[in-house]
From TrEMBL:
<dbReference type="GO" id="GO:0065002">
    <property type="term" value="P:intracellular protein transmembrane transport"/>
</dbReference>
<keyword id="KW-0653">Protein transport</keyword>
<keyword id="KW-0811">Translocation</keyword>
<feature type="transmembrane region" description="Helical">
    <location>
        <begin position="156"/>
        <end position="177"/>
    </location>
</feature>
<dbReference type="InterPro" id="IPR002033">
    <property type="entry name" value="TatC"/>
</dbReference>
<dbReference type="GO" id="GO:0009977">
    <property type="term" value="F:proton motive force dependent protein transmembrane transporter activity"/>
</dbReference>
<keyword id="KW-0472">Membrane</keyword>
<feature type="transmembrane region" description="Helical">
    <location>
        <begin position="76"/>
        <end position="99"/>
    </location>
</feature>
<keyword id="KW-1003">Cell membrane</keyword>
<comment type="function">
    <text>Part of the twin-arginine translocation (Tat) system that transports large folded proteins containing a characteristic twin-arginine motif in their signal peptide across membranes. Together with TatB, TatC is part of a receptor directly interacting with Tat signal peptides.</text>
</comment>
<feature type="transmembrane region" description="Helical">
    <location>
        <begin position="106"/>
        <end position="129"/>
    </location>
</feature>
<feature type="transmembrane region" description="Helical">
    <location>
        <begin position="12"/>
        <end position="32"/>
    </location>
</feature>
<dbReference type="GO" id="GO:0043953">
    <property type="term" value="P:protein transport by the Tat complex"/>
</dbReference>
<dbReference type="GO" id="GO:0033281">
    <property type="term" value="C:TAT protein transport complex"/>
</dbReference>
<keyword id="KW-0812">Transmembrane</keyword>
<dbReference type="Pfam" id="PF00902">
    <property type="entry name" value="TatC"/>
</dbReference>
<keyword id="KW-1133">Transmembrane helix</keyword>
């Protein structure tokens, strides 16, 4: 298509994506109470444990417009996530026509694999959240109450889920690099000890809490996923070598 047609198509797809996010935000606004209950569930789980240790902790909202801003922020992020299939498809629909048939197949395969991996990582973070919150608030000294602002608590949850979600994409990245010929299964096996050390260092730095259990919850799945990616890389290398030998065998 001519350049102007591409620009018109891009504008149309951007409008559709923004409208989908706006509608998702409006819908999430009406389900704010349910979303807030879901987000505060990890905190409410550990609150009795904190009280047993003599720590009074509450989530507070500060400022005259703080409650409105907090609800708007949560609704927007929830709407962004809920409408992601629509605006992601608009982005893909604009890019896919420029790809070759084989590239389209791999792009769709990577997308179909990456989304479940990210969701699984974010879900694992939600499971770990109570432990992380318990450890961090547990540093509050005796005689001092803990007041957690709603914005701080929400940012903490989002950061944890993003870290775990991105970490779950490791096998996808490794397989993609192998497919592009950047790394081989043999190289991955050679680098395995250093990679595992790097994974544990990353987990220790990336997790907001300082307890080893939260670090292990991130590092162990990452190590297992790396091992899976290494196996897939070995299989892909074997298939590639087999494909290279077939033409020479037929000529002989």
């Amino acid at each position: 298509m001519p350049l102007m047609d591409h620009l018109r198509e891009l504008r149309g797809r951007l409008v559709k994506g923004v409208l989908a996010i706006a509608v998702g935000t409006i819908v999430a606004w009406f389900f704010y109470d349910q979303i807030l209950e879901f987000l505060t569930h990890p905190y409410n789980d550990i609150k009795p444990l904190l009280e047993e240790r003599g720590i009074e902790s509450n989530i507070v909202i500060t400022g005259i417009g703080g409650a409105f801003q907090f609800q708007l922020k949560i609704s927007f992020v929830a709407g962004l996530i809920a409408s992601s299939p629509i605006w992601l498809w608009q982005a893909w629909a604009f890019i896919l026509p420029a790809l070759h048939r084989n590239e389209k197949k791999w792009a769709l395969l990577l997308t179909a694999t990456g989304a479940p991996l990210f969701i699984a990582g974010a879900a694992l973070a939600y499971v770990v959240l109570p432990k992380a919150i318990n450890v961090l608030i547990g540093f509050v000294p005796d005689g001092v109450d803990s007041l957690v602002t709603g914005a701080e608590y929400f940012d903490f949850i989002i950061r944890m889920m993003l870290v775990f979600g991105v970490a779950a994409e490791i096998p996808l990245v490794v397989v993609l690099l192998n497919r592009l010929g950047v790394v081989s299964g043999k190289q991955l096996a050679t680098a395995r000890p250093w990679t595992i050390v790097g994974i544990f260092v990353f987990a220790a730095v990336a997790t907001p809490s300082t307890d080893p259990l939260s670090m292990l919850f991130l590092a162990v799945p990452m190590t297992v996923l790396y091992g899976l990616a290494e196996v897939l890389a070995h299989l892909a290398d074997r298939q590639r070598r087999r494909a290279q030998k077939e033409p020479s065998g037929s000529l002989g």
